[in-house]
Design a protein that fits this description.
The protein is mostly helical. It is 82% helix and 0% strand. It has a single domain, classed as MetI-like fold (Orthogonal Bundle).
Length: 226
């Protein structure tokens, strides 16, 4: 019994580390790139503060297409790209590419919505002060939309966690692998499956709680005028 328990703990620990690693790397890629794309979509589209319909339309269509493809099929489409660029079709790299791509699209739409929902007066005030585009984002948009952006990033991170549970199909490992391949499909793996599910639930709750705390913190600071 002790050997089985130790084996169970070892499998769960390894799977959790793999999931967190996939989540961290893909989010670090998705966060800046998705924010930039979302910023462009919000400010350069039709009837927006800046006019560059071509780039805004191209990015909007690209983001919509990526989000429209079921993630399992997206992973399959990434395989030849991963093999061409990195010489590998399974494992960590194609998993990261798939997660990062869907992560960028998800973050972009959430950032776009957060900026669109801002009071238009913010842009008028920025123009009056002669703010550059970088200053507009840093000192006006980011300051006013900080709470909304944090909640958007939180939702994106939770979505990436959900997507990470299926990358085992292309050799990504993680809690999805232990829950399905080692748990559900194994005649003696029911315990492993349920523990994997519980860990995923706890991770989601932790991410959501942390995001809510940060968003509320910055929201209170904004109301106080800090």
């Amino acid at each position: 019994m002790a050997i089985i328990t130790f084996s169970l703990q070892s499998d769960l620990t390894q799977a959790t580390i793999e999931t967190l690693y996939l989540l961290l790397i893909s989010f670090l890629i998705s966060l800046p790139l998705g924010t930039i794309v979302g910023f462009i979509l919000a400010l350069y589209g039709k009837n927006r503060p800046y006019q560059n319909k071509w780039i805004a339309s191209f990015l909007s269509i690209s983001v919509s297409i990526i989000r429209s493809i079921p993630f399992i099929l997206l992973m399959i489409l990434i395989i030849p790209v991963s093999y061409t660029l990195f010489g590998t079709s399974i494992g960590f790299i194609p998993s990261i590419l798939s997660l990062s791509l869907i992560g960028i699209a998800t973050v972009a739409r959430l950032v776009e919505q957060s900026i669109i929902d801002l009071n238009p007066y913010i842009f008028d005030l920025a123009y009056a002060y002669g703010a550059s585009k970088f200053q507009l984002f840093k000192y006006f948009i980011f300051k006013e939309a900080k709470s909304s952006l944090i909640l958007g990033y939180t939702s994106s991170l939770i979505s990436l966690l959900a997507y990470s549970t299926v990358v085992y199909i292309i050799g990504g490992g993680g809690l999805g692998f232990t829950a399905i391949q080692m748990g559900y499909y194994s005649p003696v793996g029911e315990e492993l499956m349920w523990f994997s599910i519980i860990i995923i639930i706890l991770l989601v709750q932790f991410i959501q709680l942390l995001g809510s705390i940060l968003a509320n913190h910055y929201n209170k600071k904004k109301k106080k005028g800090l």
